[in-house]
């Protein structure tokens, strides 16, 4: 019976030790960091895993996630530089890099980031025209990211990226823009059609000019050929006349008869070949024709047998 108080005391000591040990052991989950406060003052940061603190003296202050987090930026109406109202919203991706500063440099960290992003979103879009706002989202994202990252750096936060999720316009403004785009497309179509017609007329005029040039060149070449043919015919006639004149001078009657007979036959051929010649009258004597033909025959015989001369 005397050991009973001792056993109770020892058991009490064991229970208290277990409780103290349990109070001093902390298990920090992966992706989180906890701050340790001693009598209300920050002392250190606990990393993920099994950690020990001084029971009843130290306590866990703030439990913060060091994983990348996302915040929704609520939709808001923003006035652009050219006084157009647009509704913009977005998302912010951030990560806590310094747990102590994120815990003790700012209160309500996420609300502070959202409000800071909202304010700067109005400033950035307000400095741009409507067309630039709608077409330069990437530029807006980069500007916002640079501004917000610099502003949140004292809080131990790193802004990973900011994305404008949606940009909407009022129905009246959308209808006006649709009308403007329709008018612009019609204007471009008219300009394209006019350019096409102009080019077609130019090509047509060039084609006609080239055709006229080719036609003129053809006429010129034909005139040259005709003149050359006439020149050669005149040369032939002159040569024939010269031969006949020489024959006459030498007293060669057969050559004269050949020349006259040839001209006579050619004239008869031209008369017979006419379209309106149904009946050919021969006002010449047959004896003259026979004599001319006989003269041609004698001349050919003379040419074929030079010994007779």
Strand content: 15-25%
Secondary-structure content class: alpha+beta
N-to-C SSE series?
Answer: HEEEEEEEHHHHEHHH
Helical content stands at 55-70%
Terminal Cα separation, in Å? 189 Å
- Shape descriptor reads rod-shaped
Q: How do the strands line up in the largest sheet?
A: 3-2-5
Specify the biggest β-sheet.
3 strands, antiparallel
The average pLDDT value, as a whole number, equals 80
In short:
By secondary structure, the protein is of the alpha+beta class. It contains eight helices and eight strands.
Written account of the structure:
With 309 residues, the protein is α+β, with helices and mostly antiparallel strands. It has helices at residues 3-24, 99-104, 109-126, 130-135, 137-152, 171-250, 253-273, 286-304, and strands at residues 25-28, 32-38, 41-46, 49-52, 58-65, 69-79, 85-96, 157-169. The protein has a three-stranded antiparallel β-sheet with strand order 3-2-5. Strands 6-7-8 form a three-stranded antiparallel β-sheet. Strand 6 and strand 7 form a beta hairpin. The termini are far apart.
Annotate the secondary structure layout.
Layout: H1 3-24, E1 25-28, E2 32-38, E3 41-46, E4 49-52, E5 58-65, E6 69-79, E7 85-96, H2 99-104, H3 109-126, H4 130-135, H5 137-152, E8 157-169, H6 171-250, H7 253-273, H8 286-304
Antiparallel strand pairs: 1-4, 2-3, 2-5, 6-7, 7-8
Short descriptors:
single chain, 309 residues, alpha+beta, 3-stranded antiparallel β-sheet
